[in-house]
Amino acid sequence: MKEVTAVITQERAKISCNFEQVEQAIQDILSEYRGAVFTEDSKTYAKKHVASLRAQKKTLQDNLREEKKKYMEPWEAFETQAKELISLYDEPINLIHGQVQAFEEMRIERKRQLISQVYGELVSEELEDYISFNRIYDKRWENATASEKSIRKDISEIAEKTRKDIAMIQEMDSEAVPKALSLYKTSLDLTEAVSYINSYERQKQEILKREQERIRQEEEERIRRAERERIQEEQRAREAQEAAVRQAELEKAEALRQAEEEKVAAVEQAKAEAAQEVIDSFIPNAGEEAERSLYPYNVFASSSERKNLEMFMDSVGIEWEVLI
């Protein structure tokens, strides 16, 4: 099919105006009024001159618009025809583009089916939760230049990397592995998952260390408390023993005191009985008349002892007198 290209040609039209004559007239007016001093008469003349100039200006503007309109009439007619011609291009463009687009869509659909087939072959069921088809899908695989070999290589590398990442996470001996796998499933970022496990283990060690320290402190406190209780118990035992000793000493002292009192009482009783015997020995038997003699004595005694002696002698019937 022969290609026909639209070619626009234009014959230059000539438009003229007495620019120099009008410009000179305006310059003459400027020279006339530059530095002028107005009077009452010249003011009226100047006003008429301004009105004339404004009328000339308006006439030129109106003439310019009118001439431009006349000048543009052939262009506007030409432009309308050209736009109608331009619009005719849309129908074949849209027809051909639609056919090309339909073909391209069919090609892309076949390519997508191929990609889906390759995905099913290379990605196992346990990996689908991590790298679903839509998640790893690359629009570049739809390009006509993307071969099946390159697509297989890309998907295989993604699957292999994911499998190794999961294995590495699972091999870490930590309670945080399930959570780390969940994080990895969301981001597919091995560094983030490993960092989470390491952080968890550090926190776990810190918590364990604090717990061990708490247990150690509690054990030390228990030992100190047991020691205090032992000391207190020993103190109470000593105090009880000392109290028992004091009580025994008190009881012993009381027994000694009572024994001493009984001894003193016995001695006093014995003295009393002996004295009574002595007194009784001095009392003459009834009906018996003893021979009596005068005995001189020097007695060394206190006043009260003297009185007691005199009362005694009186009681037993001894006659006595004080020698001065």
Q: How would you describe this protein?
A:
With 324 residues, the protein is mainly alpha-helical. Helices cover 76% and strands 0% of the residues. The chain has nine helices and no strands. It is elongated, with a radius of gyration of 74 Å.
Key features of this structure:
76% helix; 324 residues; mainly alpha
Radius of gyration: 74 Å
Count of β-strands:
0
Uncertain parts: none
Largest sheet: none
Class by SSE composition = mainly alpha
The helix count comes to: 9
**Nearest-integer average pLDDT:** 84
Percentage beta strand: under 5%
Helices and strands, in N-to-C order?
Answer: HHHHHHHHH
Cα shape: elongated
Separation of the first and last Cα atoms: 198 Å
- Helical proportion, percent range: over 70%
